[in-house]
Amino acid sequence: MKRKLLTLLLAGSMTATMFAGCGGNDPEPATDNNASNASTDDDASKADDNNSVEDTSAPEEDASVEEQTLKVAAFEGGYGADMWSEVAEAFEASHPGVTVELTIDKKIEDVISPSMKAGDYPDVVHLATGREAALTETLTKEKALLELTDVLDMTVPGEDVTVKDKVIPGFFDTLGTNPYGDGVTYYAPMFYSPCGLFYNAGLLKEKGWDVPTTWDEMWELGDKAKEEGIALFTYPTTGYFDAFTYALLDSAGGSDFYNSCMTYEDGIWESDNAKKVFDLIAKLAEYTESSTVANANDQGFTKNQQLILDNKAIFCPNGTWLPGEMAEAPRADGFEWGFMAVPAVNEGGKGSSFTFFEQMWIPAAAENQDMAKEFIAYMYSDEAASIFAKSGAVQPVAGMTDQLDDDNKLFYGIYDNGATAVMGGFASTAPVEGVSMADTLFGTVNSIVSGEKTVDEWQKAVEEASDQLREAME
Amino acid sequence: MNVKKGKARSIFIGVCVAPAVILFFIFMIIPTFNVFKMSLYKWGGYSNNKEFVGFENFSKLMQDTNFLRSFQNSILLVVCVTVVTMALALIFAAIISREKIKGENFFRVIFYIPNILSVVVISAIFAAIYDPTTGMLNSILGIFRGDKDPILWLGDQKLVIFSLVIAMIWQAIGYYMVMYMASMASVPESLYESADLEGANHVQQFFSITLPLIWTNIRTTLSFFIISCINLSFQFVKALTNGGPDGATEVFLSYMYKQAYTNSSYGYGMAIGVIVFLFSFGLSALVNLATKREPLEF
Fold first, then answer.
1. Is the pLDDT confidence value at A398 over 90?
2. d(C-alpha B163, C-alpha B80), whole Å
3. C-beta separation of A358 from A425 below 8 A
4. pLDDT at res. A64
5. Which of A56, A122, A161, B284 is disulfide-compatible with A71, CB 3.0–4.6 A?
6. Which among B124, B245, B258 has CB closest to A293?
7. Nearest one of A73, A128, A147, A109 to A357, comparing CA atoms
8. Which of A117, A134, A143 sits opposite B262 (nearest CB)?
9. Secondary structure (3-state) at A266
């Protein structure tokens, strides 16, 4: 009988220990990724983060200052992770008593969303829209973001200007910062970069071809190049048509028309101006390098970009990160990057270039909302902006471009010759099941190039999607 | 005394299996139940704004042409991959285990290697093979076709799903071949000897002896085929085409991911999950029923 009791006890303890692993909320933050392991892009490092020791133990010196911990989650993009730890340190130095707990990852949504689902939110998140996991969009659609309108009137920490006056005019007037289109700011603009057409300037020089400034010149160049077996156009994936199409729309119908498109106005996609854009892309499809569609996926998009370096295609829509992305790639002799705005759609009109920028926001469920706002205001200080600029990330603050190297100056100088800056994408709506504007408007380009669908079918599908999304707007 | 002993025994057994049962309950039953529950809500996945919508998600699904296309693609993959892989795996297994060929072990290893590789690696290999200009496939075909326009294996929307089929078959053959070989090894040699004496050739032996005697094994693998096809097709699509070009290779799990995350429609995604769940269960049951035979003893 004694033995039986023992076995029962053992089995009982087995069950009990099993639960020990499940229960208990870890008092440590889910991730406190400090610079040391933030720079490793290894996914496995995520698992280690749970155990990493927090080295910013509570400072003891000043008892009068209120101790606060600000949880900052930032997406580690092409600019690297180091600038974030540097900025966090600078923020801590200027705000005694505040400890910044930084989480940086290339897939930040995978790191923070499990604890967010469990109700544990970071205070500030730096994560742009347009990512595949669409965390920013989801929170926007769910109305789970904190309004940032009062941040505009806050004074930039350590300076005597307000955020509104410091940021380049125009940035706070777009759907990229006011996602519902009602003038209320929910995203703070970060790291802007112009998108346009990259081309092989070396090839054009070698052949004695002029850089086209209108679409007619573009088609002429396309015909000339075709005779030599060079395609006029390629694109990495259809996802890159967003900035390109936005620029075309604005150039075709002006900014009011553009905003009508972005807010799904009834019939707007069937208007003449929209038709011009659809037709233009369809014509461009005829000049597109033949293997582009086969490589227009996450696995092969660099092969499409390589076409430019190999003198097999001339133009490619992209953002300023492209030269960095292709820095190691082999290239034709005399290759030289060129970058220009998208030529005007209307004769005599203005060219345009979409300005891509990332976003920083505060979840409505964040704990330290005031300090989070202070952190966002700090992002526009000269101190923070200079730290970012060292890594090539440009804050939308006047005068920042002076601090850039020559290559980047060329890219940011795209607006100097009169091109319009286009900002902000589609307005946010409540989620509509099975309807995706990005898939309908941009994804279809593959079918246009391969001849699978006609322009009319495309235009009709976009208008239908627009109709459904308009109903979901509030 | 006996009754007491029996009771103690069942308590003991109960306590012993409890951990497994509890784990199974927590990690299998509850999540599955939650998928079913969430499919009845309109929910983005994060906030507390859950709205009960009944079967609305399902009725929307039935009208969603993108979903129907992803359903078609999934069925096409399940059918093509299963039929071809099973046929090839059986033939190769029969040849390697029955015919006396040189390097039997060598082939066994070669066929099994793809199974060890991760899907991402296989996708990278096939992306290189399918490359329109420098890929192996087009280079070889170029010998016969000459300098015509290259075939876009991953770009032609009518072709791309079959490019996926080929990659999936290549990946799966080795695993099933080894399984069939294992059961073929247990078929007694004497049956083949007497068949030889009766004058049956090897093809007849395969259909009259090998196939009926490994039938139970084949039935088991059919369920494996269905489940692994649905799971692997998601991984292949994610790594190779991401559903493109323009949705031509969308399968229902990749569509579910797109809806649940990229399109912020978590409830709708879960409704797709329910359909996938029911579909794979139903199909497995159907196949199991259709292939039921009186088991043969050696």
1. no
2. 12
3. no
4. 52
5. A122
6. B245
7. A128
8. A134
9. coil
pLDDT band at A170; cut points 50, 70, 90: confident
Token output for A99: 């400890």
Per-residue confidence (pLDDT) for residue A56, from 0 to 100: 41
Q: For B255, name the nearest residue in chain A, comparing CA atoms only.
A: A434
Query: B69, B255 in Cβ contact below 8 A?
Result: no
Q: Do A299 and B124 touch (CB under 8 A)?
A: yes
Of residues A298, A200, A452, A409, the one with CA closest to residue B240: A298
Closest partner residue to A11 (CB to CB) among B16, B46, B57 is: B16
Shortest distance between the Cα of B126 and any Cα of chain A, in A, equals 10
Per-residue model confidence (pLDDT) at position B66: 93
Residues A333, A340: Cα–Cα separation, whole Å: 22
Contact between chains at B240 and A297 (C-beta distance less than 8 A): yes
Mean model confidence pLDDT for chain A:
85
| A115 at B interface, C-beta within 8 A | no
Please list every residue in chain B whose beta carbon sits closer than 8 Å to the beta carbon of residue A234.
Answer: none
Q: How far is A138 from chain B (nearest CA, A)?
A: 5
β-strands A124-126, A231-233: how paired?
A: unpaired
The pLDDT confidence band at residue A430, using thresholds 50, 70 and 90, is confident
The pLDDT score that the predictor gives to residue A58 is 41
DSSP assigned state of A101: E
Question: Residue B262: which of A301, A443, A102 has the closest Cα?
Answer: A443
The secondary structure of B45-68 as a DSSP string is: SSSS--EE-TTHHHHHHHH-HHHH
> What is the complex's ipTM, to 2 decimals?
0.85
DSSP bridge pairs for A344? A214
Bridge partner residues of A32 (DSSP)? none
Count interface pairs A-B at CB distance under 8 A: 152
B13 CB contacts (<8 Å, ≥6 apart)? none
Gyration radius from chain B CA atoms: 24
Q: Per-residue pLDDT for A388 more than 80? A: yes
Q: Highest-confidence range of A133-142, A353-362, B102-111, by mean pLDDT?
A: A353-362
Mutate to test the interface with B, among A299, A449, A468 (most CBs of B within 10 A): A299
Task: Give the model confidence (pLDDT) of B187-222 as tens digits.
Answer: 999 999 999 999 999 999 999 999 999 999 999 999
Query: What tens digit of pLDDT does each residue of A312-340 get?
Result: 999 999 988 888 888 889 999 999 899 99
CA separation (Å) from A252 to A187, A198, A246, A267, A344? Answer: 28, 21, 10, 16, 7
B246 → closest Cβ in A292, A434, A446: A446
